[in-house]
Amino acid sequence: MQHQSIRAVTKKVERQAVSQGNALSNGHVQLTRGFTILELVIGVAIAAILTMVAAPSLRDLANEMRLRSMSSQVVSDLNFARLEAVKRNARVLVCAKAAATDTCAATANWQNGWLVCYDVDSDNACDATSATDSNPMKVAGTLNATLTLNLTDELDNPITTPIRFNPVGTANSAAKLTLQGTWTGTGKTRTAHVAGTGYITSAKN
Fold first, then answer.
1. CA-wise closest residue to 114 among 193, 177, 205
2. Is residue 24 part of a domain?
3. Cα–Cα distance for residue pair 64/181, rounded to 1 Å
4. What is the CATH number of the domain that holds 63?
5. What's the pTM value of the predicted model, to 2 decimals?
6. Cβ contacts of residue 172 below 8 Å, gap of 6+?
7. For every one of its 205 residues, what pLDDT tens digit does the chain have, with 9 covering 90 and above?
C-alpha cells in the first residue's frame, strides 16, 4: 500500500515537472520571437512612403522661411539707411555689393549682397572708412543660390545706381527690390518698395 502511494506521488511530480517545462519552453519561445523578414520589409516600405510624403512639405517650409527671413533683412536695412541719413544729416546709400570688395557695383543684380554706407561727399559711392566711423555701416553677404534679388523702377526697368536717402529722409527716386525664389510653386516673391518720399513698404506676390 505504501509502495503504491509513493509511486502515485512520483508520477504526480513527474507530470508537474513536464507541465512546468512545457510552460517555460513556450514562454522562452515568446520572449525570443523577433520580426519576420516580411514584417521588416513592410516596415521599411511604410517608412519610405512617409518620408516621400513629408519631404516636399519640409522643403517648402525651409524655402518659405529663407525667403521670409531675407525679405525682412532687406526691409530692415532700407529703413536703417533712411534713419541714418536723417540722423547724420547726410546722404546714405544702399547699393549692390561688388563680388570681391565692400564697394558699390553698378548692377541691378544684387545676388552678391548689398551695402549700406554714408556718402557725405555726394559722389554716389561709399566714403572712406575712419577709425571712429566705419563704412560701410552694414554688409549683407551673397544670397542663397535659391534666391535672386534685383533692383528696378516701378515699371520693371533695371536700375544700376544705388538707392539714395537724403538728409530729410526722401529717396532719390522710386524703386523696388524684388526678391524671388528659384523653386517651382506660388507665393515665392517678395517686393520692397521705396517711394520718392522715402517711405518703405513690402508686399508678397
1. 177
2. no
3. 9
4. 3.55.40.10
5. 0.72
6. 163, 164, 166
7. 444 454 554 455 456 544 555 544 555 444 456 668 877 777 787 776 766 665 566 777 788 888 999 999 999 999 999 999 999 999 999 999 999 899 999 999 999 999 999 999 999 999 999 999 999 999 999 999 999 999 999 999 999 999 999 999 999 999 999 999 988 776 689 999 999 999 999 998 7
Do residues 63 and 188 lie in contact, with contact meaning Cβ atoms separated by under 8 Å?
yes
User: Is 193 in a helix, a strand, or coil?
Assistant: strand
As given in the structure block, the three cell numbers for residue 147 are 534666391
- Say if 158 falls within a structural domain: yes
- Residue 190's nearest CA partner among 78, 65, 96, 71 is 71
* Alpha helices per DSSP H over the chain: 2-32, 37-88
Distance CA(182)–CA(184), nearest Å, equals: 7
Number of domains comprising the chain: 1
Domain with 74, as residue range(s), is 37-204
**Residue 170, all three cell numbers:** 526722401
Question: Alpha carbon 94 to chain centroid distance?
Answer: 24
Phi-psi region at 111: left, alpha or beta (left = phi > 0; alpha = psi -120 to 50) = alpha
Q: Is residue 170 in a domain?
A: yes
- Angle among Cα 125, 203, 75 to the nearest 5 degrees reads 35
Give 23: exposed, middle or buried? Use CB within 10 Å, 0-12, 13-18, 19+: exposed
Residue 143 backbone phi and psi in degrees, to 5? -70, 155
Q: 11 in a domain, yes or no?
A: no
